[in-house]
Amino acid sequence: MIGSANLNIMIKAARKAGRSLVKDFREVENLQVSAKSAGDFVSRADIAAEAILREELRTARPTYGWLGEETGEEDGDDPTRRWIVDPLDGTTNFLHGLPHWAVSIALERKGQVVAGVVFDAAKDEMFFAEKGEGAWLNETRLRVSSRSRMIESIFATGVPFGGRRELPATLQDLARLMPGCAGVRRWGAASLDMAYVAAGRYEGYWERGLNAWDVAAGVVIIREAGGLIQPLDSGGDVVEDGRLICANEAIFDSFARIIRHA
Q1: Phi/psi of residue 108, each to 5°?
Q2: Residue 66 CB neighbours (<10 A)
Q3: Which whole number is the average pLDDT over 49-69?
Q4: What are phi and psi of 18, to 5 degrees?
Q5: 118 phi and psi, to 5 degrees?
Q6: Strand order, beta sheet including 102-109
Q7: Cα atoms in the 13 Å half-sphere on the side-chain side of 173
Q8: Of 42, 55, 127, 125, which Cα lies nearest the Cα of 90?
Q9: Tens of pLDDT along 5-32?
Q10: What structural domains does the chain harbor?
Q11: What is the largest CA-CA distance in the chain?
């Protein structure tokens, strides 16, 4: 699949940052004897990956705005376009030597995400999409699952940790959802959860308490794969609010009724 110049810039940047992270990931096991040294190392790896992305993306498109997990928000000379970047989604997995984390890059134009890349560097899986051009995993076109029965469907979410305020609502969601489905997964990387919905590996995904850089790339990938994605709250905004629900079209209404408790 040959994408636009911007999409190719994004893929190139994601691969470069991914190579850096894979190299660092190989060192993580050696640091597990000290939680503090491992945590400090991963923080440095995260910051280094964002520096790579920043250099690649802003060198190629110096007028675009920027929103990065580590470096925050900066306006660009072009107020209509902005990069939204998470250099390491799944930091806790990375820290514990679990090979489930990703580089996430989105391009926003006039408030709408028009291109997205989620790169699972540990597995060499590049999920990407551009508005109107479909969604892809490496060289394969993506489509959401065709399952239409809740009892056959697998869902994903993030279970809040450390006493975060979203925990009670999520536990209530699970109590309503789990008796009527084939399972719920919690793998700890929102961008990959969304990419997996696009790839048909999950039927749906929901979560609260996310950031724009966690979800922006996944929004366009899911939509271009034929999935539905909405804010959890009526009148909300998926990217800005960080509260979302998504699924294939056949499952969406039944799934949303359970999660929204309507």
Answers
A1: -105, 135
A2: 19
A3: 95
A4: -60, -40
A5: -125, 115
A6: 72-74, 64-68, 78-89, 102-109, 112-120, 125-130, 135-137, 140-141
A7: 24
A8: 42
A9: 999 999 999 999 999 999 988 887 665 5
A10: 5-141 (3.30.540.10), 150-260 (3.40.190.80)
A11: 52
Q: Around Cβ 28, how many Cβ atoms within 10 Å?
A: 17
**Residue 108 confidence (pLDDT) above 50:** yes
182 in Cβ contact with 154 (< 8 Å): yes
Mean pLDDT of 95-121: 96
Ramachandran angles phi, psi of 2, nearest 5°: -105, 115
Residues listed for the chain: 262
Helix axes 212-224, 190-198, angle to 10 degrees: 0
Q: Is 105 exposed, middle or buried (0-12, 13-18, 19+ CB in 10 A)?
A: buried
Asked if pLDDT for residue 72 goes beyond 90, the answer is no
What one-letter code names the amino acid at 8? N
CB of 85 closer than 8 Å to CB of 115: no
Q: What is the DSSP string of the chain?
A: ----HHHHHHHHHHHHHHHHHHHHHHHHGGGTT-HHHHHHHHHHHHHHHHHHHHHHHHHH-TTEEEEETTTEEE--SEEEEEEEEEEEE-HHHHHTT-S--EEEEEEEETTEEEEEEEEETTTTEEEEEETTS-EEETTEE--------GGG-EEEE----TT-TTHHHHHHHHHHHGGGSSEEE--S-HHHHHHHHHTTSSSEEEESS--HHHHHHHHHHHHHTT-EEEESSTT--HHHH--EEEE-HHHHHHHHHHHHT-
At residue 148, what are phi and psi to the nearest 5 degrees? -125, 0
- Contact call for residues 115 and 130 (beta carbons, < 8 A): yes
